Amino acid sequence: MLNMADGVARLEALAASPVIDTLAQAFAAAGHELAVVGGPVRDALLGRVTHDLDLTTDASPDEILRIVTPVSSTQWDIGRAFGTIGARVRGEQVEITTYRADSYDGVTRKPTVEFGDTLEGDLVRRDFTVNAMALRVPSRQLVDPTGGVEDLVAGVLRTPVDAAVSFGDDPLRMLRAARFAAQLGFEVDPLTVAAMAQLRDTLAIVSPERVQAELVRLLGSPDPVRGIRLLVDTGLMELIVPEIPALRLEVDEHHHHKDVYEHSLTVLRQAIELDEARHPGAEPDVTLRLAALLHDIGKPATRRLEPGGAVTFHHHDVKGARLARKRLKALRFDSATTDSVTQLIEQHLRFFGYAEGAWTDSAVRRYVRDAGAELERLHILTRADVTTRNKRKAARLAGAYDDIERRIDELAAQEQLDAMRPELDGNQIQQILGIGPGREVGEAYRFLLDLRLDEGVVGPELAEQRLRAWWTARNPAV
C-alpha cells in the first residue's frame, strides 16, 4: 500500500540530493525549468530503489550541454538527435532531455522527434500515468496531470491518453505494459489490454533491437510470468516469439500429457527461485531465464500420438535448440547469449537417464565436459524442469541430482575436472608418433581425451603406451 506521507518525504530527499540540487541551481541560474521525471519519481513514491536519474527541461540540447558542462565531470551527446544530453554529476550519471512529443508515422521503425513547449505536454505524451509524473526543482512541486498517484495507489497501469493514440505514437509501449506489470506487480487497465490486442500488428514497425531490449527487461523483472501471460493473451507474443504461444497444444481426448505452456512457465518460475537461492543478491540471469522459458519449444513439432494414449516428443531437445537459435538471431541477440541458450536447451534432458541408474565416472565426466561453462545453469535448469505433482517422484529426482552434483564436486577435487584435457598435448603427440601437424594429431588428441574421460588420470607414461598402441592398431603397416 502506498503511504503518501512517506512518499512525499522520499520526494523531498530526492530533490535535496547533491546531484539534483546542483543541477536545479544551475538550470535556475540560466533561466530554464528543470524537473525529475518518470521512473525516479514513481520509485520514490513507492519506496523502491531507483538506478536512473532522468530529468526534463525547456532548454534545447545545446543549452543543456552549456549548462551542465561547468558542474559535471563528463558529458556525452550521443542522444542529441532525440534531445538528450548525458552527464556525470557528483559521481552519478544523469540524462537530461528537452520536452518532447515523439510519434511514429506508422511506416518507419524509428520515432519522429518533436520538441515540446511545456512540462505538462511532455508528461501527457509518456507511456503510462505512473510514469507521467514529475518533480519540479528547485521548487519541489509534484506535477501529475494524468492521475498517476491515484493509479499508483490502485496498482493499475493506464495510458495518459486514449490507449489507441498512445500505442499509435509508439507501439513498443504495448511491450512496456507487460514489462511494468511484471516489474511493479500491477494490473493493466482492461481498456489498455483491449487496445494491445487490437493494435498488436502495429508492433511490426518497431525494430527487432528495441523489441529484444524490452524482452530482456521483462525477463529480468521480479515476475516475468505475469508479463509473458499478458503478451500471450493479447496475441503480441505471436509477433515476438511465436514458439511460446505454440506451446498451448490442442488437447486430444484420447491422449493426455501435461500442459506444455503452463509447464514452461512453472519451469521459468522455479529456475528464478533456484538461481536466487544459489546466488543471493546477483543480477537476474536473463540467459538462464530464456533457456527455461524456451526449453520445450521443440515439443509442438515433435509431438506424436501413439496407440493406447501415449504421447511422445522424441528429440524435442534438438529441435528446440534449432528453433531457439533461429528466433534469437531474428531478435538480434548477441552470439554468446544465443549459443548459451541453445546449448542449455539441447542438453536439458541429459540428466534424466541418471535417475534410472547411476552413471559411471566416465559418464559424469562427459556430462561436465559437454556442459562446459554452462554447467551451473544446467544444474538449475534441470532441477527446475521437475514439475511433477508426484511427491515421491519429485523427491527421487531431486535426490538423484544431489548425487550427481556431489560426484561432480568429488571428481573435480580429485582430477581438476574443469580443466578436462588429455595428459599429452599436441606437441608431445607429434613427437611420440613422429608426425607433423594435421588431421591425425587431432584424432590422437580426441583419443587421449576419451581415455581421460573414461579412466581419469592414468599418468603420462601409461598415456603414451596407450597412444602408441592406438596408433599401431590404426596403422598396422607402420
TrEMBL record:
<dbReference type="InterPro" id="IPR006674">
    <property type="entry name" value="HD_domain"/>
</dbReference>
<keyword id="KW-0067">ATP-binding</keyword>
<keyword id="KW-0547">Nucleotide-binding</keyword>
<dbReference type="Pfam" id="PF01966">
    <property type="entry name" value="HD"/>
</dbReference>
<keyword id="KW-0694">RNA-binding</keyword>
<protein>
    <submittedName>
        <fullName>CCA tRNA nucleotidyltransferase</fullName>
        <ecNumber>2.7.7.72</ecNumber>
    </submittedName>
</protein>
<keyword id="KW-0460">Magnesium</keyword>
<keyword id="KW-0479">Metal-binding</keyword>
<dbReference type="InterPro" id="IPR043519">
    <property type="entry name" value="NT_sf"/>
</dbReference>
<keyword id="KW-0819">tRNA processing</keyword>
<dbReference type="InterPro" id="IPR014065">
    <property type="entry name" value="tRNA_adenylyltransferase"/>
</dbReference>
<dbReference type="InterPro" id="IPR006675">
    <property type="entry name" value="HDIG_dom"/>
</dbReference>
<keyword id="KW-0692">RNA repair</keyword>
<dbReference type="InterPro" id="IPR050124">
    <property type="entry name" value="tRNA_CCA-adding_enzyme"/>
</dbReference>
<dbReference type="InterPro" id="IPR003607">
    <property type="entry name" value="HD/PDEase_dom"/>
</dbReference>
<dbReference type="InterPro" id="IPR032828">
    <property type="entry name" value="PolyA_RNA-bd"/>
</dbReference>
<keyword id="KW-0808">Transferase</keyword>
<dbReference type="Pfam" id="PF12627">
    <property type="entry name" value="PolyA_pol_RNAbd"/>
</dbReference>
<keyword id="KW-0548">Nucleotidyltransferase</keyword>
<dbReference type="GO" id="GO:0004810">
    <property type="term" value="F:CCA tRNA nucleotidyltransferase activity"/>
</dbReference>
<dbReference type="Pfam" id="PF01743">
    <property type="entry name" value="PolyA_pol"/>
</dbReference>
<feature type="domain" description="HD/PDEase">
    <location>
        <begin position="256"/>
        <end position="399"/>
    </location>
</feature>
<dbReference type="InterPro" id="IPR002646">
    <property type="entry name" value="PolA_pol_head_dom"/>
</dbReference>
